[in-house]
Known about the structure:
The structure holds 2 protein chains of 2 kinds.
Chain A: H1 4-15, H2 20-26, H3 31-39, H4 55-73, H5 78-89, H6 94-97, H7 100-112, H8 118-126, H9 129-134, H10 148-158, H11 166-175, E1 179-182, E2 187-190, E3 200-202, E4 205-207, H12 216-224, H13 242-259, H14 265-277, H15 282-290, H16 298-301, H17 308-319, H18 323-326, H19 329-335, H20 357-374, H21 376-379, E5 383-386, E6 389-392, H22 393-397, H23 407-416, H24 423-434, H25 441-448, H26 452-455
Antiparallel strand pairs in A: 1-2, 3-4, 5-6
Helix pairs in contact in A: 1-3, 3-15, 4-7, 4-17, 5-7, 10-11, 11-12, 13-14, 14-15, 19-20, 20-25, 23-25
Chain B: H1 6-15, H2 27-36, H3 49-54, E1 74-80, E2 90-92, H4 96-102, E3 113-114, E4 119-121, H5 126-133, E5 137-144, H6 152-161, H7 172-182, E6 190-193, E7 209-211, H8 224-238, H9 243-265, H10 276-289, E8 296-301, H11 310-331, E9 340-346, E10 350-354, E11 360-362, E12 366-371, E13 378-381, E14 399-400, H12 401-412, H13 417-421, E15 455-466, E16 483-488, E17 501-509, E18 515-521, E19 532-534, E20 540-547, E21 553-558, E22 564-574, E23 581-592, E24 610-613, E25 627-635, E26 641-647, E27 658-660, E28 665-673, E29 679-686, E30 690-700, E31 705-716, E32 733-736, E33 747-757, E34 763-769, E35 780-782, E36 788-795, E37 801-805, E38 812-822
Parallel strand pairs in B: 1-8, 1-9, 5-13, 5-14, 6-7, 6-8
Antiparallel strand pairs in B: 2-4, 3-4, 5-12, 9-12, 10-11, 15-22, 16-21, 17-20, 17-22, 18-19, 18-21, 23-30, 24-29, 25-28, 25-30, 26-27, 26-29, 31-38, 32-37, 33-36, 33-38, 34-35, 34-37
Helix pairs in contact in B: 8-9, 10-11
Amino acid sequence: MPALEDLEHLLRRTEYVARPSRVNELKNLSTDAAIDDILDVPSNPGSANLTDEVNWRRGEELTHHWLDRMAHDSPRPIQERMAFFWHGHFCSDLTKVGSADLMQEQIDTFRRGALSNVRDLAIEMSTQVAMLRYLDNNQNRNTSPNQNFARELMELFLLGVGNYTEADVEAATAAWTGHTDDWRNGEYVWREDWHDASNKTFLGRTINQGADQTVHGRETIEVMLGNGTIPGGARQNGGRPSKEVAAEFLSKKLWIDFAGTEPSNAVIGDLRDAALDNDFDVKPWLRELLRHPEFYTTEVKQGLVRSPVEFVVALLYATGRRSVEATPLWLMQGMGQRPLFPPNVSGWKHNGYWVNASAMAKRTETVRQFVWRSMQDYWSGGALHLRNGTISYDFVNDRDRDQADYTEVLDEVLRLAELELSPASYDALASFATSSYRWELSDLFHLAMLAPELQVA
Amino acid sequence: MLDPDISTGDALAHLSVAEADPHALDRRSFLQLVGMGAGAGLAAGGVSPVVAELLDGLGTPAWAAGPVGPTDGILVVLTMFGGNDGLNTVVPVNDGNYYDMHGDLAIAPERTLRLNRNFGLNPELTELKSFWDAGQLAVVNGIGYEDPDFSHFNSMAYWMAGRPHAIPTTGWIGRWLDGYLDGSKDLYAAAEVGYSVPLHLIGASARGTVVPPSTPGFGSDTSERSRRGYQAIRSMQSGANGPWFAAVAEAMVDQSELAQELALAIPSSDNLSETRVVAGVDVAARLINANLGFRVMTVGYGDFDSHAGQPDQHPVRMQELNAAVKRFFEVLDPAWKSRVTVMTASEFGRTPWSNDGAGTDHGSSAPHFVFGENVKGGMYGRQPSMAGLNRWERMGHHVDFRSYYASVIDGWLGGGSSDVLGGNFENLGLFRRGPGILSDGSIAPGPASTTPPSNFVPLAPRRVVDTRDGTGGVFKRRLRAEERVRVRVSGVGGVHADATAVVANVTAVEATQPMFFTVYPGATARPSTSNINGGPGRPVPNLVVMGIGDDGCIEVFNSHGATHCVVDVFGYFTADGSGDKFQPVDPSRLFDTRFGDGVPRGKLGHLETLDVQVANRAGVPKSGASAVVLNLTVTEPDAPGFVSVAPTGGAAPETSNVNFFANDTVPNLAICKLGAGGKVTISGAGGNRHVLADVFGYFSSNGDQLRATPPRRVLDSRYGIGFDGPVGPGRSVRLALGGSGAVPNTATAVVMNVAATEVAGPSFVSVWPSGEDDPGTSNLNLAPGQTVANLVICRLGEGGALTIANEIAECEIIADVLGYFVT
């Protein structure tokens, strides 16, 4: 049975928020059983139902639907968290892809395969039109190779930079020729006449020679995660099996995403072995990560700065709002993270990246908008809605500045939002509350939602 | 293994040492630390003035030396993310290989903006062409590095780090900042206009700031209600435990401080461009104009990664670059032009061969631009050859990017390139002159800055300039129209060499036409304000409280005709801890010879003197006051003459305060040292006249400190600025100054020159704190047709506002803020 503190830490990192309901469900299980429960994701999680005619708004619908799943709807939020991890790893961007439906197809793949197998996921996403468009492989042809996808597949997706030579890039580029799209309807198209089927040496293996030319591209993934060898001419890891290097590369990224710290060599080794022992299946890999003793060190538990998406999810949870009611999507861009719009092919960053004055300025603005949108009902004579109930206009109206009981409004906000604050945060808010007028509830609400406890998971 | 996620790795590395750097100091210690280290000429920028004032509970803010010095260079770095096609930016118009390899993407020679026989600029870059034509654009060809890396992330990391093929832990500007700041934290030394700290701004101890490319939101409002909120944030964050909580806390506090500062530079009513880079440079220019201390501003944009569809992409990027250059120099205050240089960067160029998919792939070397008023225009480096290159072969390079950086660090940022870059790299000599130097070798006037809070040191009155006899080493003739005289005050007549501001009576004498003087800090751009309104017939004096320029001078500009100028100094302000603070009192009459209040009744005659007891009267304490602020008025004179006020017991003054004609009623503010027994002596010459005085405050060890500002017009009722005129019966002005761009809301009192013009009839103007009763005093006495001015020092009332009233006859009122007091 895990210590309560460790269980809450585990839930914050895997399910965004340590929901009291989940704490209750898991607190009497063993740590391993609790982790298995967390990882027990539905195999058929469903998809968004986009209704708007306009592509841009379909993208907004898709985003709100995803944020709602993270905050409210998913029975196992790690599925959404990992889907978002893959979205930021094998990333595409709505602007360049040009179609919310193609983005949805890709994200559904990430969700369904969130905890499945990296090789399968990589192969599937490689020929989806979203990726073909995003990294220009739809323009990669024998007569005019375009290296963009082939290079990033190695550099950012599977191996890490420096673990291949320019010749490997050229070989992989050739292998991936021929996969393109029909710009009129967004359908995948195989163009055999565009394919360069000449034999190539890739990570020490000969590829591109089988009769089925449509699988020449995926061979590069199979080699990287299979029997390839990092060439001696590469900048590092020369002579090592490429699958080990890939396992280490991805283990490091997973660890940083969940733990926030630089992984130790021991962690890298343990996670690499878990990946190799299970042929790149994600679930056992994550299980190893979540039960790793180093995941429970003070340094790791001391905090992971919530990314803007995680922060918005925490706000949605605290207020119980549906995303469409409260989330100012345009401000997520300013905070630095809006789903469907990664900044570039390397995706989003972690932890310290989010800590700067400019990003924090956008967080405060986001919360202000969030609060205003959440208080519409209150301002029209109704109530302030929070996760576990409402605060009526009369309740607030009976309490005012310089009256001791005004802190009761604060207590009610915190209780209904399931927020536990440090004494310093509480005292600061209480001191603000006792010097504020009853019509300044939005300020109090705004400040409570900016507490450091909401910024760090 | 090199982490492709370079910013993360760096931020982690940086923040994990937070405990050991000044971020970890509490802010009070930090401010003190910065203040202690701040001698004259020290480079550290310190904490922004406005911010420190808005911090609650900090006690007396401490100060670093002034923001940007007159010969400090400011660098703006424009980064083009994704790898810019250098060949289509600076087109080698005579290179057949380029036209063969770039194919349809190539730009025909006649479409380029020709630079010389061999090169032409991309047709979109018209603004850069103007710099070229002015001899102010350096084109550095063939910049790259050995063994180029074709990964965006690696190559950008190397460029930003300023070190190829090393694990990038710090950036080149960050290491320059390490030396510049020498361990202190400064939000206002270097900034990225964007959403995150780029690697190039991260040093071993220093770290650049991030300013969003938008109008500031939360944190910019300075109402009492908002400030309670900021205080709550500050308190919440102060309890944060653990490195990440602490880091978030620091950023939360920083952002509200920045927002308060930015709100002055970027009012929320202003619209910034929708184009990110244009908005970015707009913000950069405003922050430079605000003179907060920024030496480096960086802005980045993209996407330049034109693997496909380059004809639809690259021209747009070039248009954006051009629009950004245009906008930046539109917004930049001309006073900064000789101090600002812009440079470009990108992680690599692109392949000479196009990929037939109408794109180009990751290349190697590329040309870059350095431009600005003091840049020595021309071609530098060399265009690498494309001869015989195969499809995937890249060009070589001729200029190592570290040499490019060294040229800017040593030529523009004051040196230190070998420390920053870890070796000696060739300085390409890109600059014609150092920062702030004009073509004639003189130092360009700079924008003035607000002085640190300062105390007053009164002096026995002393004439420092008189153009009638050449006193002060000035010419011995009238100032001509549009001519200025530089009045040295630092180190003169008892004024300390490090004085921040001076109190002087400036008199326009023997003017040939109606005219005004504008008085302003030396070596700064002349503001559109006025201090003395004079004309033929009579000398017109007025008191000024004026920040002293970096050159130790104030300047007096004459608008029309020919006018003699006389300057008498009565004291100075200093930030060295000596001197006294200002204590305003409710205005009250000190004496009036018409009624014999406190003095013998009856007019003063020629050369007659009158000792007036000040200590222990009219709100001035019995002891401890070193000087008094009083409005001295002469009335009912029977002939022309002048009146002087000086400390009792000193030598007879050679100065004057009020000049009059027969039957005038003329006031002038005076700040006078108290002499023996806490008295001042009134003297003068000429006609018999009544004299009276109202006390507005005094200086002693307790009270408020002055911050002299660049003169700034806040009210001109003729043009609807601050109030739509005229001002008259039933039409008084409520001038809300606290929290405006001119005066922060922590100001307790303002120093303001108030002038009345287009006067309809005899009247008087009174100024008092809003929300209070009319004290019955007067500041200006009006006669029809006259334009008169007087200095006013007045407490700010309700809402940080002043009331300016004229209850008898209409007039137009003009007011210029010269400074304010803070507790």
